[in-house]
Amino acid sequence: MKIGLRIYVPVITVMLMQDCRQPYSSPAIRQNPSYLVVDGFLNIGQDSTIITLSRTRNLDSIVPVPELNAQLMVVGASGEQYPLYEQGNGRYVTDHLNLNFNENYQLRIITSDNKEYLSDNIVAKPTPPIDSLQWGRDSTGVHVYVNTHDPQNSTRYYRWDYVETWQYRTAFESYFDWVNGGEIFRPLDQHIYNCWMTAHSTDIFVSNTIKLSQDIIYQYPVCAIPQTSEKLSIKFSVLVNQYAISEDAYDYWQILKKNTEQTGSLFDPQPSQTKGNIHSVSNPGEPVLGFISASSLQQKRIFIDGADVTSWNYSPYYNECAISDTIKPIELDQQLAPNVYHFLVYMGSNNGAYFTTPVRCGDCRDHGGTNIKPSFWE
Length: 378
Fold this sequence. Notes:
This protein has helices at 27-30, 247-262, 329-335, 359-362; strands at 36-40, 42-43, 49-55, 65-66, 71-76, 81-88, 91-94, 104-110, 116-119, 122-123, 130-138, 141-149, 157-169, 176-179, 182-185, 194-200, 205-208, 216-226, 235-244, 278-280, 288-289, 294-295, 297-305, 344-350, 353-358. It is mainly β. The chain folds into two domains: 31-124 and 247-292, no CATH class; 130-246 and 293-367. The strands form six sheets. Strands 1, 3, 4, 5, 6, 7, 8, 9, 10, 20 and 21 form an eleven-stranded mixed beta sheet that branches. Strands 13, 16, 17, 19 and 23 form a five-stranded antiparallel beta sheet that branches. The chain has a three-stranded antiparallel beta sheet with strand order 11-12-18, with no helix packed on it. It is globular, with a radius of gyration of 29 Å.
């Protein structure tokens, strides 16, 4: 006799109430306390001092909120005052400040709603020169290193930032232009084959020699060029800025560095309170973001030629570029008219055939750079 075993599996029907689902936006993203942000330093050398004021913004916003129509001045311990002048977009500028080393100064800010903010006392510090910049390569790319020292052993705390510039090219070089219904040779200052791009550093670079017997910084990495980056397709240059800072400033930048760069998982350092040296006079409990230091500025520039970096394997930003000869003169007038966006670049003609290429293939400016060669370029 055969016995059949029948198993019953219950069927459960689940109904999803889609109409009840609503997107959730965290209050931390939506709510903006609009705290004052102060960025810059007091340059006691020959260059200008630039202080930028802005307001905190929502996490889902990418548009900066500049603080306009404020009054800024540097006040010395003996009562002297040095005003800064509004330049627009939250920037306040003054020519070289005649400050004395080892004297106390404060930055005073009065916003357009008559709220006053004052920095702690700031001691102006001299910055030692940068001894040299060097570069090297590893499996991740090219790295630029800074070397400096203070023979007086009195600096101890350092901060750096940089401005990088690189040359790149588009696919084709246009020697001609189409102007007023005719072909002309493109003037040299209007060639659009070579361009230069400039970017400012966004990471935080600080170091100290407090545990060393001598005040020497050796091979500190300040700039990295990722493997195959466009930045080394032809030539790259970086201008490194060096500042002497106080111990308090070092602590501030070190905490900010950890909060902004290293927090990514449960095992990373967790965010901590970042306390600057600027405070509200009327409301001491109001958070103000930023730390103002006073020092001279030391700079040094280095060039790296792409030809000196073998097997870089750079892939151009443009692709599938070709030259077409199907366009007619009347279409050229329309496509290349002044004060309109050009989709094509004129390349020349031959026996009635007019050659063009897409703008990304013939105009390097379309990639975001400028065809004006920097004055410092070698």
